[in-house]
Amino acid sequence: MTDIPSYFKFDPATRRLSLDGKNPDFYRDPNRGYAAMHATSPTFFWEEEKHWYFTGYEHVNAVLRDRRFGRQITHVMSREELGWPEPSPHLVDFDRSESKSLLSIEPPEHTRLRTLVNRAFVSRNIERLRPEIVALSHKLIDGFEQDGNTELLASFAEIIPVTVIASMIGVPNEMCRQLLDWSHDYVRMYMFGRAAEDEARANTAAKEFADYVIRLAAERRKDPRDDLLTLMLSPTRDGQYLTEEELVSTTIVLLNAGHEATVHQIGNAVNVILKNGSDPKALFADAKATELTVEESFRISAPVHIFKRWALEDLEFGGLSFRKGDEVGLILAAANLDPKKFSDPLAFRPTRDEGLSLSFGAGIHFCIGAPLARLEMNIALPILFERLPHMRLAADPVVKDVYHFHGLERLDLCW
């Protein structure tokens, strides 16, 4: 019998769920809440969010691939038709930076932009980064190995992804700290229950971020280099270019998505492995074992939990009727715990080989940076546990209050 948390208020007659995403009992251990969703109703109307949510693997996977649902709605309906107010003046810079985001647009714009950017993310280009990631991992560990302790997020997990994606794009290494600060402020817009201060900081970050990208692009036009920014400034074979607005949105989303989730995931994976008392030698015995361990860490402790879609037409799905313009929520992290897909889903089983999780999404919006994130995890984790075989938790990890992201504020380790 599944344990139903006290914060979980569900009415089976209407399938309506009342759950505060800011409740520490929920965001600190969301998997317990997700298990309750599967036990009561994998499809439900979330009262606080005011729309239907799907958590079943089959349904979430299907919606992600169903072209009747989209990440964008304003290309087929006006704000007036949607009943939306005019855009908020205090978010003008954030809205501008999001206007051409790969995460938020639909074909044909999405197809064109993704094709332009995809040139840099093909497997052979990503694999070229292996020596850099190996060297950086060892260099960082060299810096704290003799201390006998470290706070892993600041000393290791934050540095690897931002350094690698910045290098790929062509951002100088000395800007990495600033990129982290901008990114942390920017993603405040995605938090449940964000406050006015969060919105103000996100808008300021968006403006400063955009201004920097424009300045850097101007430099690359004068001095082209072997980096992603230069590539994005170059035409494709059919003469297609990115506009300045597209360049800004794309660069920001790549810098954010290229490190924010992976920072969380390195911390989440190390935490899960240590808490489960798993044997690192077995987890990382060879390439296949490492790959399965990494995929299982993504499944049971995904860094991004929710993506939403809009109904682009009147439709029927999952026994429900949706009108054009209705919003639908997909809890990817809950789909990863669907007992119909994964046996004993709340258990960390590094040898599990039951198919891929939905942590990177699916369909046309499948995470473009998935190969890079997987490469970083498959390199950094084995090196960390090989170099520090006696590593253990020095304190209970502190979970960030940033639902629907899931990551740690601190991960204090000792050895």
Any overview of this molecule?
It contains 19 helices and 14 strands. A hairpin with a 2-residue loop joins strand 8 and strand 9 (320-322). It has 415 residues and is an alpha+beta fold. Strands 1-2-3-4-10-7-5 form a seven-stranded mixed sheet, sandwiched between helices. Helix 11 packs across helix 12 and helix 15 crosses helix 19 (370-387). The protein has helices spanning 24-27, 30-40, 57-65, 79-82, 92-98, 109-118, 123-127, 130-144, 152-157, 159-169, 176-186, 196-222, 228-233, 244-257, 260-275, 280-283, 287-300, 332-335, 370-387; strands at 9-11, 16-18, 43-46, 51-54, 69-70, 149-151, 306-311, 315-317, 320-322, 327-331, 392-393, 398-399, 408-410, 412-414. Helices cover 47% and strands 11% of the residues. It has one domain (78-301, 344-414): Cytochrome P450 (Cytochrome p450).
